[in-house]
Amino acid sequence: MAFDPTTKHPLYLAFAPFWRLMRDAFDGEDAVKARGEIYLPMKSGQAAIIDPIARQKAYDAYRMRAEFPELVAPTVRGAVGTILDQPSTIELPSALEPLREKATRDGLTLEGLHRRIAIELMTVGRYGVLPGVAQDGTPYLAGYVAESIINWDETDGRTDFLVLDETGLVRNRETGAWDTVDVFLECFIQDGAYTARRWTQTQNGWVADEEIVAQDRKRRALDSMPFVFIGANDLTAAPDDVPLYGLAKLAVRVYRIDADYSFALHMTSEPTPVAIGFDDPKDAVENGRAPTTLGSSKLWLLPPGGDAKYLEFSGPGLEAQSKAIQDALSRAVVFGAQILSDSQRTAESGEAIRLRLGNQTSTLKTIALNSAAGLERALKNLAVWMGANPDEVKVTPVTDFFDHALSAQDITALVAGWQAGAYSWRTMFDRFQRGELIPADRTADDELGQIDQENIERDTSADEVAALTPRAA
Questions:
Q1: Residue 54 C-alpha from the chain's centroid
Q2: Is the pLDDT of residue 97 over 80?
Q3: How confident is the model at residue 10 (pLDDT cuts 50, 70, 90)?
């Protein structure tokens, strides 16, 4: 049987629905509503409508009134902003220095690629990086989202087979039109060498390009696949759990409840007038004897013994739906969407904040470490390809996300403790440095030297002032 480049790994098929939900939840209301009944099932009353056009119009109105809460995208952006608020320290050999300004073929800087990796890990928990060398010898890194890494295999824990979906739009240079071209990159180890070929869908079926064996600067074949799997928890090939999947599910839950709530409001928010006493209501309406309009200029004539009143919904059911929405939004806060909370916490000590946010920041720390480790491994693989020393590559993320700035009261208390002999000056210096009062790159000896210099300058100024001060006769 012929090789089929579109075959997907069983784990890919298992995780694809999770990734789809996260993408749609991240993209927001328009993307979710475009999925129709996948996220918002049709009500039984709508499904019972026989006319398909009327049935669809009823569902469209039901869906249009609903609001999908924007929870996932702000949480992802906020988390990545926290992770990369201070950029990672990246050390590179000279051969890879150009990557700092242009790491990918689409122009991302190395820092920009790191941010993209972090966003993907927070969104779907998976990303891939394939190092490469252009024909002119320029190194680059190619990134692949989770949905593009469709098939893989390993032998003794080492990846030796991989298929990447590179399908995309290609402009027809003659007509200017854009067409979708199905392309898949197959990577594999053959005879101990890293080999790759591209498969393209044509009118005659799948056609493979010539196999290419990757070689380093000394024209030696690479003996391992340079592709790096980056997950939310580790750097293995198996997909990881999606960090914010629970938040996306809560968002869909709120969307469904809000659809019913908005539908009920639409159906019951306005009082309905009722006229009573007509023997044949249909005949009375057709012959203009029954009232059909409201207003001070419209006279209602009722038959003997007739009556008129309003039917109005009292609302207990709506209150329950509203409460359910608020409860779901409150649960969303637990998953990291603090931006939804409208309550201010009382003053907390730094240690109390650390304890309260410990579990939350553990996820951020894991993402920070894995994104940096994956980028570092990809750069090391590229260094080997370029004939550089991979040991010169190092990516060190910042994993302390707390604000350690000292207050005036903290500073006074620290100085008082030092003056009382409770701890040494160097201990106090370390605490000041961690509290961002003293620059992080300044040593204790440097600080003492500056203090001595200021004392000398202060004493000199005092002597000059004394010399210039007139003395009494």
A1: 39
A2: yes
A3: very high
For residues 22 and 36, what is the distance between their CA atoms, to the nearest angstrom?
16
Q: What is the pTM of this model?
A: 0.75
Give residue 4's identity as a one-letter amino acid code.
Answer: D
Do residues 76 and 119 make contact, with C-beta atoms less than 8 angstroms apart? yes
User: What is the separation of C-alpha 329 from the centre of its chain, rounded to a whole number of angstroms?
Assistant: 19
Tokens representing 251 are 């968002």
pLDDT at position 50 over 60 = yes
Helix (H) or strand (E) holding 220: none
Residue 113 and residue 8 in contact, taking contact as beta carbons nearer than 8 Å: no
Sign of the torsion angle spanned by Cα atoms 263, 265, 268, 269: negative
215-237 average pLDDT score: 92
Q: Cβ atoms within 10 A of the Cβ of 11, count?
A: 13
Q: What are phi and psi of 277, to 5 degrees?
A: 125, -5
Is residue 376 left, alpha or beta, with left meaning phi > 0 and alpha meaning psi from -120 to 50? alpha
Q: What's the half-sphere exposure (Cβ side, CA atoms, 13 Å) at 373?
A: 16
Burial class from Cβ neighbours inside 10 Å (0-12, 13-18, 19+) for residue 345 reads exposed
Residue 184 has pLDDT above 60, yes or no: yes
146 and 230 in contact (C-beta within 8 Å)? Answer: no
E runs forming strands in 379-429 = 394-396
Length of the chain: 473
Q: Return the domain boundaries, the chain.
A: 271-312, 408-468
Dihedral, CA of residue 102, residue 103, residue 104 and residue 110, to nearest 10: -100
- Backbone φ, ψ for residue 164 (5° rounding): -120, 130
Backbone phi, psi, residue 85, to 5°: -55, -40
Residue, of 346 and 269, whose pLDDT is higher: 269
- Residue 299 C-alpha from the chain's centroid: 61
